[in-house]
């Protein structure tokens, strides 16, 4: 059985009369110990999906799903109190901007120890020793003295390491990294990614990597979900998708990686933007931007259909077994 | 931290200087002089008036009087009241506990209810509670203190008879002033001799409650509004989301992770409210015949008791400055980013 199973998840914001679906009919499964990449441009619903799953939307969004199950527990019917026993312990999350993700009023040590006290009941010397151990696990130099440092005294990279230490404190089964390197310097980005992957392997965690950096996904992830306008456009094994993208949107994303357009005069781009609340086309959501668009695409919304070891949401997938 | 305190102390000197100049000037701008006021309706012989002014040193040119005043201050002489001949320092220290007791209760009332109302309004943003609290806060902030005091007296003291109209304690009790704080003194007296002073503490509390509410109303409104807006700002911060993602209870997220940061601007506002409190004490003490600094100063002004007005106000101002200074230090403790600033 998969560690995380999401079936037909929708998240709506706004009033009942005028709802906006940030996520629509999303399916996703994650197995223990695997790395799944979720890719898509800004506003495609990547983060919202994960926040909804963790119960972090705080009553702002309405969540509907056929199934939302983690480690055998139904997250749809679970009480807030029960959910808090899972969140931060078995599922934890790292956010995009480490400089604002830590509370400026408390020392780094306090913020790490807070999780350990809450979920593992550690106290006294054992608590401090574990916090120190975590700081060393995320390779923070002079860890002992950094425990009493405040977040503003740390660099962005160091802060992200602290955030990672906090997230892995209780040996979670699932770690969600929401664009963990976007706000960091290029040189630090690689180090943080390496750290995450090595921790994922040593702790045998599942890792969901939310990013818009396809190069990172190609390097570390086994499976990939490409999201567009709140829906999964395509999902499958990383090698399959990178060799033969099936969805026109995936193809466009791959073409826009600078390394892929060597020799080309101009970087390939997909014109247009993700449709917003009021300008959703009646057919395929990509139809106004799709280079291969046909009559049927404008009229009828495609469903997610199984293909290879994944699925694609397109009437005319680019990769076809028969062809 | 030490250099932080030193720097702040250095800024105090010019402030003191300004206060002496203002109080010295303002009291002399009011028509009439102490001798005229003392004599009152009776006709005054010009020669006697001149003699009396000379005795008081008020016939010297005004700049010399100011220099004398500064000289006395610098050597630690606060002078004597022109009316009672008691030293200003002694009068101040005798009366101050009454004002302090009132101010502390008012601030306590304002802080507890202001913070609570602000936090709940922020969490339930847009709800009826939020709109209600903010509407009431605006009303409270705009209310003239003397009118509000009279309304409360009319309703609670005259109509319902729940609280006494004025003073600090019923005359039936005989309580030796030990600390000067009536609540403590009454409690001590009651404990020492339960038969004689039974119910003294309750009576002192009853006397204190209305003036404290009146004096605390404006600070309450200011604190509630500031807490709400500051909480709303901090609730949007990423680190609050991080706190929730840790699985912390909503109470811990609100009161530890959010309020701690939201308190920083609220603390500053609270410190500034001490000034309002001292100004409000003058009105409140007059309405409730509360024997404190406020009533003392009002009486001194109407008697043109120059030394009392000048030095009384100077001491009150010093106190306000000191409290703000302490708030600055607390601010540094609440906000590590300031504490570590070089």
Automatic annotation (TrEMBL), chain A:
Its main location: membrane. It is a peripheral membrane protein. Gene3D superfamilies: P-loop containing nucleotide triphosphate hydrolases. Keywords: ATP-binding, Cell membrane, Membrane, Nucleotide-binding, Transport. Residues 4-254 form the ABC transporter domain. GO terms for molecular function: ATP binding; ATP hydrolysis activity. PROSITE patterns: ABC_TRANSPORTER_1, ABC_TRANSPORTER_2. One of its GO terms (biological process) is peptide transport. It is found in: Cell inner membrane. GO terms for cellular component: plasma membrane. Pfam families: ABC_tran, oligo_HPY. It comes from the Bacteria. Belongs to the ABC transporter superfamily. This is Oligopeptide/dipeptide ABC transporter, ATPase subunit.
TrEMBL record, chain B:
CDD domains: TM_PBP2 (cd06261). The chain crosses the membrane at residues 9-30, 102-123, 135-158, 208-226, 262-283, 312-334. It is a multi-pass membrane protein. Its EC number is 3.1.3.1. InterPro entries: BPD_transp_1_N (IPR045621), MetI-like (IPR000515), MetI-like_sf (IPR035906). It is found in: Cell membrane. It is an enzyme of class 3 (hydrolase). One of its GO terms (molecular function) is alkaline phosphatase activity. It comes from the Bacteria. Residues 96-331 form the ABC transmembrane type-1 domain. The keyword Transmembrane applies. Keywords: Cell membrane, Hydrolase, Membrane, Transmembrane, Transmembrane helix, Transport. This is Alkaline phosphatase. It comes from Pseudogulbenkiania ferrooxidans 2002.
């Amino acid at each position: 059985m998969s560690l995380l199973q999401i079936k037909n998840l929708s998240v709506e914001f706004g009033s009942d009369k005028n709802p906006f679906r940030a996520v629509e009919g999303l399916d996703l499964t994650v197995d223990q110990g695997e790395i799944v990449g979720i890719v898509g441009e800004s506003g495609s619903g990547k983060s919202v999906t994960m926040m909804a799953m963790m119960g972090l939307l705080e009553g702002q969004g309405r969540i509907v799903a056929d199934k939302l199950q983690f480690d055998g527990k139904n997250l749809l019917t679970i009480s807030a109190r029960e959910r808090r026993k899972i969140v931060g312990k078995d599922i934890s999350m790292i956010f995009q901007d480490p400089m604002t993700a830590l509370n400026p009023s408390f020392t780094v040590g306090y913020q790490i120890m807070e999780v350990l006290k809450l979920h593992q009941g550690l106290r006294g010397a054992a608590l401090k020793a574990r916090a120190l151990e975590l700081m060393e696990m995320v390779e923070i130099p002079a860890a002992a003295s950094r425990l009493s440092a405040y977040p503003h005294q740390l660099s962005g990279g160091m802060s992200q390491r602290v955030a990672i230490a906090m997230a892995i404190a209780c040996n979670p089964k699932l770690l969600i990294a929401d664009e963990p390197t976007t706000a960091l310097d290029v040189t630090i980005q690689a180090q943080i990614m390496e750290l995450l992957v090595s921790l994922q392997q040593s702790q045998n965690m599942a890792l969901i990597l939310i990013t818009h950096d396809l190069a990172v996904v190609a390097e570390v992830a086994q499976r990939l979900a490409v999201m567009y306008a709140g829906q999964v456009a395509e999902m499958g094994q990383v090698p399959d998708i990178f060799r033969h993208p099936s969805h026109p949107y995936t193809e466009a994303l791959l073409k826009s990686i600078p390394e892929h357009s060597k020799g080309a005069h101009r970087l390939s781009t997909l014109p247009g933007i993700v449709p917003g609340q009021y300008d959703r086309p009646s057919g395929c959501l990509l139809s106004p931007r799709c280079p291969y668009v046909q009559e049927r695409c404008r009229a009828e919304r495609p469903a997610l259909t199984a293909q290879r070891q994944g699925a694609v949401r397109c009437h005319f997938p680019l990769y076809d077994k028969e062809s | 931290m030490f250099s932080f305190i030193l720097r702040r102390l250095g800024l105090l000197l010019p402030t003191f200087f300004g206060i002496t100049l203002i109080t010295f000037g303002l009291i002399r701008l009011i028509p009439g002089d102490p001798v005229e006021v003392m004599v009152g309706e009776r006709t005054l012989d010009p020669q006697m008036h001149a003699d009396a002014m000379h005795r008081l040193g008020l016939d010297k040119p005004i700049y010399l009087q100011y220099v004398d005043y500064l000289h006395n201050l610098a050597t630690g002489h606060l002078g004597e009241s022109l009316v009672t001949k008691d030293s200003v320092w002694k009068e101040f220290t005798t009366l101050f506990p009454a004002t302090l007791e009132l101010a502390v209760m008012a601030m306590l009332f304002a802080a507890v209810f202001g913070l609570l109302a602000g936090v709940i309004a922020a969490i339930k943003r847009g709800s009826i509670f939020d709109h209600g609290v903010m509407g009431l806060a605006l009303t409270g902030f705009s209310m003239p203190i003397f009118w509000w005091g009279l309304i409360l007296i009319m309703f609670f003291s005259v109509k319902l008879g729940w609280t006494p109209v004025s003073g600090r304690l019923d005359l039936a009790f005989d309580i030796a002033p030990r600390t000067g704080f009536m609540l403590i003194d009454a409690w001590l007296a009651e404990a020492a001799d339960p038969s004689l002073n039974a119910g003294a503490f309750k009576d002192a509390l009853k006397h204190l409650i209305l003036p404290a509410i009146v004096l605390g109303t404006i600070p309450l409104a200011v604190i509630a509004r500031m807490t709400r807006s500051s909480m709303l700002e901090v609730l949007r911060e990423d680190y609050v989301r991080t706190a929730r993602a840790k699985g912390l209870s909503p109470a811990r997220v609100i009161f530890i992770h959010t309020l701690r940061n939201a308190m920083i601007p609220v603390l500053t506002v609270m410190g500034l409210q001490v000034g309002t409190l001292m100004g409000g004490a003058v009105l409140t003490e007059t309405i409730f015949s509360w024997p404190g600094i406020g009533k003392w100063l009002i009486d001194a002004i109407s008697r043109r008791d120059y030394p009392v007005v000048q030095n009384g106000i100077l001491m009150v101002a010093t106190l306000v400055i000191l409290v703000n200074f302490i708030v600055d230090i607390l601010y540094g403790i609440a906000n590590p980013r300031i504490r570590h600033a070089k």
